[in-house]
Structure formats: C-alpha cells, structure tokens
Amino acid sequence: MKRVVVVAIVCAGLASCEAVPGAGPLASDINSQAGKSISDVHRSNAAVFEIVDVNAESARTVADFSVGMLKRRFGIGGAARNVVIGVGDQLRVTIFEAGADGLFSTQDSKKTDIDVIVQPDGKAAIPYVGLVQFSGRTLEQARQAVLSALANKAVEPDVIISSGSTSSRNVTVSGAVGKPSMVPLGLSGETIMEVIAKAGGPASQPYESYVTLARGKKTGTVLLQSIVENPSENIYVEPKDQIFVTHDPRTFTALGEVWKNGRIPFGSNDVNLLESIALAGGGSDERIDAKGYFVFRYEEPEIVSDLLSPERFHELVAKGMRPNKEGRYPIVYRFDMSVADSLIVGQTFPIKNRDVIYASRHPAVDIAKFVRMVSAPLAAARTGQIMMNQ
User: Fold this and answer.
1) Do 254 and 363 belong to one domain?
2) If 0-12 CB within 10 Å is exposed, 13-18 middle and 19+ buried, where does residue 228 land?
C-alpha cells in the first residue's frame, strides 16, 4: 500500500514538472511567462510579451483602430492649399507684349511660348530675364517674378505660366495594380483610391489586397476593403508618397485542442474570434481548457500603448520586448469561453492576417495521460509477478 502511495506522489511531482509530453504549453505556462523580462525567463532568445484579456473594452479598442489606422497615423490630409512649383516640373511661360515689334512679339503674333524645366537649384532661364527662382513658389508668385523682371525690357508685358508635367508632385504606385507607375497629383488633391485607380486599379479582390502607404519615416498598412468600407480611411496622398498594393489571401493558423489544426483561409471580407474558432472545428469537449484560448499577434505600437498604457508599454520595451520588421510588437490576447458574455465579445474582436489561435488543453488531460503512462508498466510488472508466482 505504501508503494502505491509513493508512486502516486511521484506521479504528481513529475506532472507538475511538465514531464508529460504535449503539443503545446498549458494556459498556466503562457500566463506565467507574460510580462517577464529575458533575464526572468532565463533564456537569452526569449520573446517578451504581455497578455491582454479579450473583453468588451479591449475588443472595441482593437476593432476601432483596425478601421482607422491610416487616418490616425497620417491624418486625413487634404488638398494642398498652396500648391508650389518643385524641382523637375515642366512649365510653359507665355509672354505677351502690347507692341507688334517687341522682344517677344511680331507682326504675326503678340506672344511667345517658352517651355522650361525647373533645375536642381530651383531655377530656370528666361530669355532677356536670366535665371528665375521657380521652386517653392506658386504659379502666381512665379508669374509676378517674371513680370517684374520684364518691366523695363518689354512693351507693356503680361505673363501666363501653366504647369505641364509635375515631377515634384508625383506619387509612386506599385505592386498588385493594373499599371504600376508614377502618378502625378492634380492641383485639387487626390485620395488613395483615386491614385490607385489612375494606376489601373487593384489586381485582386479588395478583401485580399493590402495597401501600404509610406510617407517619410512613417508607414501604415491596411486592408483595401477597410478603405472601401470606411471613407475616413481614404485619406489624401501627398507628393513623394509611396503606395504599394499587395495581394495576400488572408489566413490564420489554428493550433492546440481544436479539431482542425493548420492554416485556415478567411474566405470572406472579415472574420471575428468566434468565427475563427468555428472554422477550426471548435474545441474538443474532453480536452479543451475553456479559459485558455489565446490569440498570438504582432500588434501596432499605438494599439499596444492604448491597451497597456504608455507607461507599461515603455516598461516592457525596457525589459526586452522587441518589434518585428514591420515595427509591430508581440501581444497575446486571452479569451475565456467559460463566461456567458464571451459569445458577445468574441463577435467584436477582429482576427487579422497571420494570427495564431491557440486552444490550450485542460491540466486534467496531462494528469490522465501521466496515469496511463505509469499504470501501463505497473500492470505489466504485476502480470509478470503473477506469472512468476505460478
């Protein structure tokens, strides 16, 4: 009898030391590592992350940011109030004279058209005037500059300056569009959708196309479908912006105690957390830990800061939390399916491309597995002892 008790104690001790093989960590393992620094985990290559519970507030924060990321990061923008001439712009300078025999007029015509290109120093040459500063000036300001220079040289001159190609106001559109190209901006301002349309439009469906906007040192990536459905995201572009359209069928990966492990396509415009669990076949009633559903994601820094507070975010960065190559930080969302309102909250939490959804097993599964592992050799030994006694 004592031997049985000792064996039971050993089994319990080994089970607590994770002696039982498993397909992934228990919920307790994930919870215990959250928020710890690299030195606390005692692994030099460990990832520092934090856990955020999926509740009504956090789900709303993630959903709201997902549909307003470009506006939030770049602002709505708008048509430039004072469009100025830039280096490389092609201009047509038309000079009129009242007399029939002036510098720029003849018996047949009282005007002369002069095509110029603004040079790297911002200037261009006009006959009988010399170098004129064009870069940084509006068309009207440039007109007044040329007109002033002609005051004592031409007969009652007048000037009209019109814009040809505007290299300084181009936007680069590349990737999965009909015609990747440099798109010139008009004087009234143009939105992302208008510029993409000028480049031939997207080559794939909006719910499988991503738009990345790069402006200076800022970048932002959103689903094209989000821009279509949320007009506030259709922000105005600015000269020198770079727009890249990517065709990337959206998928998420389901692991753990769900019936269908693997990469699963969205198959629709969007998928919420409950739908993703359903697409994976749901959890196994006999093995699942209903309190241990997790979504592993690299999240936008603004979302991380809003969810954790700026102070906690900076603290984790100091502990060793590092972004990926897109500048996003690791966050783990924890979802408790044992509470009633989870069926409401789960509908508002959006799943994103490349998310990993992990359903942890219940601790009782490991205990039962360990009991089977130990009972098998004990049963064999008892059978052998019986046979020897015979």
Assistant:
1) yes
2) middle
